[in-house]
Amino acid sequence: MKRRVVVTGMGAVTPIGNTAEEFWNGIRAGRVGIGEITRFDTDGFKIKLAAEVKDFAAKDRMDAKAARRMELFCQYAVAAAKEALEDSGLSMEKEDPFRVGVSIGSGIGSLQAMEREHKKLLEKGPGRVNPLFVPLMISNMAAGNVGIQLGMKGKNINVVTACATGTHSIGEAYRSIQYGDADVMAAGGAEASITAIGVAGFSALTALSESTDPKRASIPFDRERNGFVMGEGAGVVILEELEHAKARNARIYAEVAGYGATCDAYHITSPAEDGAGAARAMMEAMKDGGITPEQVTYINAHGTGTHHNDLFETRAIKLALGEAAGRVKINSTKSMIGHLLGAAGGVEFITCVKSIEEGYIHPTVGLLVPDAECDLDYTVGDGVSMKVDYALSNSLGFGGHNASILVKRYEA
């Protein structure tokens, strides 16, 4: 028998709030966290906007000395994980640390370290490169640092599937608990890639919005959409085996009911045009959860604001849900916080949990001009207060990676 898995803690660092509560309050207020880039001089860049984290001080969220040996993406991960652990009420002193694991991914790792040390190499020679350059840069250090800082000695993994990283990381943590590899997992994603090389690279790919209006830059499913806005941050949750959570009288936010993962096997950047791969991931998540398309209340779409993603994801939802696709509520959290890349799935999973907990589905902010080919219910205008029993969270990544997580209202 597969073990049941529940959500008992949440933590977030985002462009609209540096805790899960601040983030959700920003969502409820329809706040857009996009503004002019401050991390580097954008002179000569076509891209002027990003969704940066504001007023984050690592020394206030963790040991200051330890923070100095972490790059920004790791600091975000540790801050979010610490918050999630505190929120869960779990005491590591009372746990077998080898039964508590970590599954936190980063799509890229530290571009800041790459830029900084490459400059030293060119200007001062190889002998001046930081001896810690590699362990500072590599993407698995988000999971590694969380394990070190929180004393979690169980399975510690780093899934890297570009923009699907956060969702895959939560899905693999869910599976780890289901089949007995762990009793508790800290799971999610972290990213901090708003750097000159990061923005230049995505810009060269023509993936980023060139808008200079923060309210019309990240506009998923809008006919005038022209790319995504790069964001940053972290979203981490504590997943726990149900009986373990009940034994310590934990507060249970929601239950993870299903997980689906596929590959388009089509193109290194574009999703499959018919949406078949993403559709199959959703179908596998529903099958895993033992539900029909008619039972899905809400879908948190990948919804990046690129032409191909939004069109092909719309086709995928229609393919996966059939006639029920027209009745499900859909939105894109990226309309407010931009695209957090490897962290997106973690933060959007938290959005699904909060939507179930509070019975509120936020609007796709900034969606003003309907697209005839994107013709589903993307929650235009105001948010909707309604009971949410089942929510799907979708993430799609370069390379054809598709992941879908099914979250449900917890019932004993």
Describe this protein's structure.
By secondary structure, the protein is α/β, with parallel strands linked by helices. Helices cover about 35% and strands about 20% of the residues. The protein contains 13 helices and 14 strands. The strands form 3 sheets. Strands 5-4-6-7-1-8-14-13-9-10 form a 10-stranded mixed beta sheet, sandwiched between helices. Strands 2-3 form a two-stranded antiparallel sheet. A two-stranded antiparallel ribbon has the order 11-12. About 60% of the residues are buried.
Summarize the structure.
By secondary structure, this protein is of the alpha/beta class. It has helices spanning 20-29, 64-67, 72-88, 111-124, 133-137, 141-150, 165-178, 196-204, 242-247, 276-289, 307-321, 334-337, 344-358, and strands at residues 5-13, 35-36, 49-50, 100-105, 156-157, 184-191, 233-241, 254-263, 298-300, 329-331, 360-361, 384-385, 390-397, 401-408. The chain is globular and about 65 Å long.
How are the SSEs ordered, and which strands pair?
Blueprint: E1 5-13, H1 20-29, E2 35-36, E3 49-50, H2 64-67, H3 72-88, E4 100-105, H4 111-124, H5 133-137, H6 141-150, E5 156-157, H7 165-178, E6 184-191, H8 196-204, E7 233-241, H9 242-247, E8 254-263, H10 276-289, E9 298-300, H11 307-321, E10 329-331, H12 334-337, H13 344-358, E11 360-361, E12 384-385, E13 390-397, E14 401-408
Parallel strand pairs: 4-5, 4-6, 9-10, 9-13
Antiparallel strand pairs: 1-7, 1-8, 2-3, 6-7, 8-14, 11-12, 13-14
Helix pairs in contact: 3-6, 7-13, 10-11
